[in-house]
Amino acid sequence: MAKKSQATKKPAEQAVSISRIRINQLFFESWLIIQGTLGLFILLSLLSYSPQDPGWSTQEFVSPLNKVDEINNTVGTWGAYISDFLFSLIGYIAYLIPAWLIYPVIKHFFITKTTVGWPSLTSLQFIKVIGWVLVVISCSTLLSIFIEPTETFFPYEGGGIIGNGISSNTLQPLSYVGTVLIFLTFSLIGLTLSLEISWTILINKIQEYLLKFGGNFWAENFFTDR
Rounded to whole angstroms, how far apart are CA atoms 226 and 223? Predict the structure, then answer.
């Protein structure tokens, strides 16, 4: 009798487990839809940014909830304030924000197409967050160095407040070359951590492609019978 009861429990437990996985997946995909919509909203606000729109950096502050007669931003007053805030904070690197939000959606629905649930907050996820922070800080600093103030119409130039603040305090003690070298290294480390890039595998793939392409090129142009 005990064996029979245990045998009947197993299918029931499996059904509950499958049901939980299914519910978990539904919640996860619902969150991805919200995340993708938010990323698309931010992307549209950045692409249609206009210095004439009200924002956090303008002299006359207008609440996003108030009605404004003329807004150039595609997604309205909220889009104008979001784009102004992101461009003011990190400059051109603001375009990475919607990319980070939209990429997991594309990867889940169109690339992997696997049944997965909520990702566990493991140490790997924490390392990825650290990597993205390194990418944002280092790339903002590099852009503030490379892009002249007159080449952009952003509130705080190409690197934003973060990039300008860091570059202004590192250029003198580290010099131009030293600052570029250090923050280029930080950006590569950030990409390695956030995207889990293996530079050894990447270099080997490039070498294989170059050897294959170069071999075909030489064979077609110099070793074929004419």
Answer: 9
Q: Into how many domains does the chain fold?
A: 1
Residues 6+ apart with CB under 8 A from 117: 21, 24, 25, 27, 28
Query: Is 40 contained in some domain?
Result: yes
pTM metric for this prediction: 0.74
Domain of 49, in residue numbers: 1-113
Place of tokens 């990039």: 163
* Distance in angstroms (rounded) separating the CA atoms of residues 226 and 215: 18
Burial class (CB in 10 A: 0-12, 13-18, 19+), 86: buried
Which one, of 90, 92, 78, lies nearest residue 42 by Cα? 78
Any residues with CB less than 8 A from the CB of 41 and at least 6 apart, and which?
75, 79, 82
188 or 213, greater pLDDT: 188
Is 201 domain-assigned?
no
Nearest to 174 by CA among 207, 142, 200: 142
- The angle at the Cα of 124, spanning 118 to 130, to the nearest 5 degrees, equals 110
Q: Among residues 159, 136, 138, 137, which one has the least CA distance to residue 148?
A: 159
Task: Tell me the per-residue pLDDT of 160-204, one tens digit each, with 9 for 90 and over.
Answer: 999 999 999 999 899 999 999 999 999 999 988 887 777 888 888
Residue partners of 64: CB distance under 8 A and separation at least 6:
77, 78, 80, 81
Consecutive H or E run containing 138: helix 123-146
Structure-token pair, residue 141: 């600093």
Is position 31 within any domain? yes
